[in-house]
Write the structure tokens for this entry.
Amino acid sequence: MSGRIPEDFIDAVLARTDIVDVVGGRVPLKRGGRELVGRCPFHEEKTPSFTVSPQKQFYHCFGCGAHGSAIGFLMALDRLEFPEAVADLAQRLGMALPQQAMDSTDTGPPVTGLYDALRAASSFYQKQLRQHPAAADAKGYLKDRGLDGSTAARFHLGFAADEWDNLRRALGEQFSGDLLRQAGLLTGDKEPGYDRFRGRVMFPIEDRRGRVLGFGGRILGEGEPKYLNSPETPVFHKGRELYGLPNVLRHARNPDTLIVVEGYMDVVMLAQHGVDNAVAVLGTALTTEHLRAAFRVSSRLVLCFDGDNAGRRAAERALDNAFPELADGRDLRLLFLPDGEDPDSLVRRIGREAFLELTAGATPASRHLVDRLLAEVDITSIEGRARLSALAKPMLAKLPSGTYRELLGDEIGKLTGRPFGRAVAPARPIRTSASGRRPSLVQRAVLLLAHHPQLASKVDELAALVSVREPGVDFLLRLVATIRGLPQPRLDHLLEQWRDSEDGATLSRVLSSNELVPDAAIAEREMRDLVSRFAPQVKNDRLAELLHGTTPSQMDSAQRAEVLERTQELASLNRRRTNPI
């Protein structure tokens, strides 16, 4: 989506969505008490540990920790961006997206119309490859490249005849010329326009859900450009898309490794040889958005580059773009192919197993970065080590905070002879309890509120905790304030309110804990008990505030009365805690 979706629209979508319908349409669920249970779609398991709560509108897997709202489920399962997931749910409900969130302008075509036209064009090109008299050259080209018919069909390859209006005449009755032009299928400023793709083998570019977004066309014979891509449209953005992604997801929803190559034929021929975890960028440099999309599919990427100077320059550009995405848990590696080889030719020459061995031995990005720095300095001299430090600092600054950055800094520190200063990690507002350790009162209160947000309005005494000086109280109070500001005190609304925030990450850690959570009625009683156990500290803090720097003789009658009242209340509370019966 090009625009921002208003929060009140997101709230309305969540309010009308039943997560059981969303998840149940993709995962077989059975009733298990108050919740529904099934096998987790995000990891392999034999015993179901995946639960869906109709009351909380929340899913959680006790095996892998995956959890979230209906929006989060679609984002995780279908690799959708947040706006795409909201739009998907809205479409199911028959809700129109607000104008500022639409892909198209007031005068542009509906996005669904573009998808329909592109799908029809893909079917037309496939049919032309099978039936058009001039398709012999296209079939000969594919055969010479070693491609078989089943692989061509799997990737929906097609043929655009070298005619000015072949596609326009075929689709003109079903779609307007303006819509076909908006979809990037026709070109020319004046009606009726003419076919953009002519005399080419056609590679449809599909998104993770298999929808056609655009095309890449490889010219037959001589001519320029050798490869022609669809122009930017409301549904196609070359700097974001990965060719071959649907094929990857058909074979493994969570592949251990994703291989990123440069060309369409590289992906197609790797798949024909049994390497079904490869995607390609679309004839452009690898962008940060490409990397972000790839890391949503797998936490381990292997980037393939030619071994010549151009390939190494492309690798350096890709690494520079990758810095912001190298968070903890992500593994980026580089594979430089032998001179004169590309993945297509290499897998045909050495076979699947040998090719996969090469990818398994690809160079970690951290090793490549260190080697790149060492190639620019002489670390045998003080000046060289100082320059190494100067070169490394801005590079490390681009990396996300975390263990990866710290360990890379340690490695460089060994070479310079002095430690790189580690950034002080920000204090976490609250920790989830470790296994076997009793959670603190604050941790327990947060856990109860996270699972039962309606308690924020039922336990008025929570506001009094503002004076409590314990770790996590600030987070607890922000949690209470946020819940009270929601249109409905529901967990799914809370998750989306805090999406991509530090507080949201903390909330996710709380929700991922294995602490037992009672039902709503018992949770309310426990929450009131927790608040009462804070009461002595609250009153003690207020008494200390009254007495700070002041003697009783300096107080007015109202202050002395409050001191006496607080003292008596505190004594009474302490007696009850000592002698509860």
